[in-house]
Structure formats: C-alpha cells, structure tokens
Amino acid sequence: MTAVKHESLPPPGWWRALQESFAAATTAPLSSAGGVFRAERDRYPHELVARIRDAGPGPRARLAIYQEQYWMRLFAVMQELFPRTARIVGEFSFNRITASFVAAEGVPSRDLADLGAGFFAHVESALRRLAPAATHGYEVIEVTLRELVGAQPVTPQDAVTSVFASVEAPWSLAVQALALDESERRAFRAPFEPPWSPDVPTRATLAERQPRFAASFSLVRLDYPLEPRVPPAREAMAVRLPHPRHVVVVRTANGFLTRRVDPLHARLLARAASESIEAAARAVEEAAGEALAPRFRASLDAYIDAALTGGWWVGAQPPSAEALNRRPRTPSGSLPRS
Fold first, then answer.
1. Higher per-residue confidence, 296 vs 53
2. For residues 212, 196, 260 and 190, what is the CA-based torsion angle, rounded to 10 degrees?
3. Domain limits of the chain?
4. For residue 5, what are the contacts with CB-CB under 8 A and spacing of at least 6?
5. pLDDT tens for each residue of 166-185
6. Taking the mean position of all CA atoms in its chain, how far away is CA 284?
7. Sign for the pseudo-dihedral over CA of 66, 67, 69, 74
8. According to DSSP H, which parts of 82-152 are helical?
9. Biggest CA-to-CA distance, the chain
10. Half-sphere exposure (CA, 13 Å, Cβ side) for 115?
11. Is the pTM value of this prediction over 0.70?
12. Which of 1-10, 135-144, 149-158 shows the lowest mean pLDDT across its residues?
C-alpha cells in the first residue's frame, strides 16, 4: 500500500493577519503614566477588537489582560536575572529600563531563557556616558546617578538616562551591581567546562604558559556589599565597604558559583588573562611590596590550585620561545605538583 504524502497548506491570509495584529497588540509597550504599568485599551485596532467574541469582561479588557500579563512576565524574568540592579534603581524604574530595552532590541521574538542577553550593554552604555572618565568601575565614584544626570548638558535624554534622573544610588554602586548580575547571568547560560588537570609535560612548563579561562569566568571588584543573590535593603547596599572585595563567578555542573578571592589572588587572575603565569606572578609580587610579598609567595600554590580545580583555568597556550629560553626560572613560590 502506497502512503499518501500530504503537504501542509499555508494558513489563509486573514488568519495570518489576525495573528500578526494580535501579537502586535499584546507586545506593544504599556503606559507607565502615574507610576503603574497599564495597557492603553483605546489603541487596540478596531479590526482586531471586532473579531473577538467575548461574554465578559469585553474585547478590549480581554486584550489588556494578555498584554499586561505578557509584560509582567518579562519584568519578573528580568528582575530575577538582574536582582541587584533592580533593587538599586527601584523595581518600577527597572521595569521602565526593561521596557526600553525590549523596544530597542526586538526582544518579543526571543526565548525567555535568552531575554537578558544585551541588557548589560544597553544599561552600561548609559552609565558610561554619565562618567566617561571612569574605567571598568575601579575608580569609585560616589556621586549619585541623579546628580550626574543633572550635571549633563541639556540635551534629549534616552530612556535609560531619563530613569537615572531620579535614582539616588552612587554611580559605582550601579556599575558594580550591573556587572555582578551580568556575570552570574552569563555564567549560568555558559557551557560547563570541567576542571583542568595538566599532564606532566604541560605542568613542567606551566609557569611559562598563559592560562585559558573558562568562557563563563568573570572577576568582579565590589566596593559595596553586593555578594548576596537576594540583595539587602537599598540603603544597606549603598554603604561602602572598608576595603574592596573581589569575587569570581564561574559555571559549575549545577549552576554557577560566586566566590570571594583575596586581593592578591584577584591581581594574579587579572594579569594572567593577558600574560604568562610567571610574568603575572612576578608583577603581582613586585606591586605587593615588602609587607605583602611574603604572603603572596606563600599563597601562590593555593592560588594556582584554586584556578585549576575550580574550573577557572581550563587550558593554556604553549609557552613562547622566549619563555622557554628563560627557563628554569619559575614564579616566586612553587607551582602545584601532580
């Protein structure tokens, strides 16, 4: 018996038009006038409203339910992805930023799992425009976002900067919270890379090699108490720490890990991103000075071991010819043995 192959027919034009009209209506931005997000029901196309058969609460009210629930879901997902940023700027203001991001990036067609991709750049670019002289968040700027916006020339403001005009949080607090939120979001979405255990020949030349970091790895400096995933009250977050903290964020088999590392370890990790372990260790030791150099030498084994066993370093480039010619020099302190 011969099977009959049925080819699916394209949907009729009126059905496609109806779907497109419904999608456009339910994904259109909500009004935030009066401090509440609401659907503007009078803007629904008459042709779409006329096609809805509803015994109650009415066609426009029913469309508003779909539209508002769609946006509430987006707002909730983004607040889960960027909890510290949302707490600092305020949840309503954060939702306004989210709405501007969705409108700019065409997010409605995305899977919810990838909703936050691009949000960091969207917000960080606005933060950088307020303090262009600052680099990477390491210069602590305690001037508030509101004050920085007020000091700008009178020019048309983008949606994000308009939100910042009412935020009393210090600039560096916002920058670092956004960076930590993004690091955790990116780590969770990155593939898990198991810890690296170098073989004997590789370990023999490990000092001369530049390590390869896991794709999920981030190193974030914090001058404010931002480590908890569930942030404290906004006022508590804005109290500057006595000394900076540094945290590593990396993908694990079960999610992601945010772990504090001491400043010397952080310096080694930062320098090893662009040079060999030997060169990085020597530079950190020289910068540490007489007071901290002995502690750095004593801790170097543990620093490198943590990077290997924690899955922060997942490989290494072969040593350069120049590095091999300099052997048998090794970093101050010994490297971990097999």
1. 296
2. 70
3. 14-81, 88-189, 192-338
4. none
5. 999 999 999 999 999 999 99
6. 28
7. positive
8. 83-89, 91-105, 119-130, 145-150
9. 89
10. 18
11. yes
12. 1-10
- The owner of tokens 């779409």 is 48
- Provide DSSP, 303-325: HHHHHHHTTSEEEEPPPPHHHHH
β pairing state of 313-316 and 211-213: antiparallel
Spatial CB neighbours of 92, under 8 Å, sequence gap ≥ 6: 32, 35
What local confidence, expressed as pLDDT, does residue 182 receive? 97
The 10 Å Cβ neighbour count of residue 109 is 8
Task: Tell me the residue type at 283.
Answer: A
pLDDT tens, residue by residue, 229-287: 888 888 899 999 999 999 999 999 999 999 999 999 999 999 999 999 999 999 999 99
- Contacts for 288-296: CB closer than 8 Å, 24+ residues apart: 288/264, 292/264, 293/332, 295/264, 296/264, 296/332, 296/333
**Are the C-beta atoms of 45 and 25 separated by less than 8 Å?**
yes
> Is the predicted pLDDT of residue 11 greater than 50, yes or no?
yes
DSSP code of residue 33 = G
Total number of residues shown for the chain: 338
DSSP helix, strand, coil percent of the chain (3-state; round to 5)? 55, 10, 35
Question: What is the DSSP secondary-structure string of 49-89?
Answer: HHH---SSS-HHHHHHHHHHHHHHHHHHHHHHHSHHHHHHH
**What CA dihedral angle connects 278, 303, 172 and 142, to 10 degrees?**
-100
Q: What tokens were used for 154?
A: 């009178």
Residue 79 DSSP one-character state: H
* Mean per-residue pLDDT of the chain: 87
d(CA 226, CA 275): 30
Q: Given the structure tokens 């010994």, which residue do they identify?
A: 334
Q: What CA–CA distance (Å, rounded) separates 253 from 185?
A: 15
Whole-number pLDDT of residue 132 = 78
CB atoms within 10 A of CB 156: 6
